[in-house]
Amino acid sequence: MGAGRKASATLADERIVAAVVAGDTEAFRELVQRHQQMLVGVLTRILADPDEALEAAQDTFVKAYTNLAGYRREAKFSTWLLQIGVNLARDRHRRRQLLDRKGIISLEDLNRRQTGDREPEDGRNPLRETARRQEWEILQAALADLPQEFREVFTLKHIEGLDYEEIARMTGDTPGSLKVRAHRARRRLQEKLKARGVLAPPSATDSGS
After folding, report:
1. CA distance 25 to 117
2. Helices 164-171 and 175-195 meet at what angle, rounded to 10?
3. Burial grade of 4 (CB within 10 A; 0-12, 13-18, 19 or more)
4. What span, in angstroms and rounded, lies between the C-alpha atoms of 206 and 33?
5. pLDDT tens for residues 90-105?
């Protein structure tokens, strides 16, 4: 999406937020439709469990709705929404740890149940599309094997394209600690991709930024 379209989308979000706060509660459905796929995709990668991600996304929209009057526009609405979602995902992960549950799913489950896959399709070349999907599925499965804090920073930085300052505002971590964690996540992910017989994507795992 180009800069002009991003700015237009941001402006549209703010107009919808203003309408909801003014009393047009039905307008919130438009915000859900705009951001649900992105939010579920991020939470699926962070939680490594599509069912939990769907529940967390629902909780995120509920919390966003009840706190919409507190949205001050210091950040884009989508970033504010992600901040809520990431913090709810962290809460779920802590509860999962307390229950001694394992937050990993199989490649088959991920492929069958993944709801937030944003990988673009290239219908003009079926062979290329198939290869791209296979690579994406392998990346998703390898990512699911990482610790939650690594999945989180890798998803926000390298899949969603946020900078460290944005992620720091969302998570409460420092940019420096996030950079270290992202570097370790890239290294771990590269090892897992090599173990699966594929090379790590250069843009995702070889960059030091």
Report:
1. 29
2. 100
3. exposed
4. 34
5. 988 887 766 544 444 4
Taking a C-beta distance cutoff of 8 angstroms, is the pair 104, 144 a contact? yes
The topology (CATH level 3) of 1-118 is Rna Polymerase Sigma Factor; Chain: A (1.10.1740)
Question: Each residue of 32-66: pLDDT tens digit?
Answer: 999 999 999 999 999 988 999 999 999 999 999 99
Distance CA 188, CA 128 (A): 27
The pair of three-digit structure tokens given for residue 67, joined into one six-digit string: 């706190």
Helices and strands in the chain, H and E counts: 9, 0
The CATH classification number of 122-209 equals 1.10.10.10
Q: What 8-state DSSP symbol labels residue 146? A: S
Using a CB cutoff of 8 Å and minimum separation of 24, what contacts does 2-10 make? 9/34, 10/76, 10/77, 10/78
pTM beyond cutoff 0.90: no
SS3 content of the chain, % helix, strand, coil (to 5): 75, 0, 25
Angle at the Cα of 94 from the Cα atoms of 38 and 85, rounded to 5 degrees: 20
Write down the residue that tokens 């549209």 correspond to.
Answer: 12
Domain boundaries, the chain: 1-118, 122-209
Reported as type and span, the H/E element at residue 201 is none
The C-alpha atoms of residue 186 and residue 189 are separated, in whole angstroms, by 5
Q: Classify 48 in phi/psi space as left (phi over 0), alpha (psi -120 to 50) or beta.
A: left
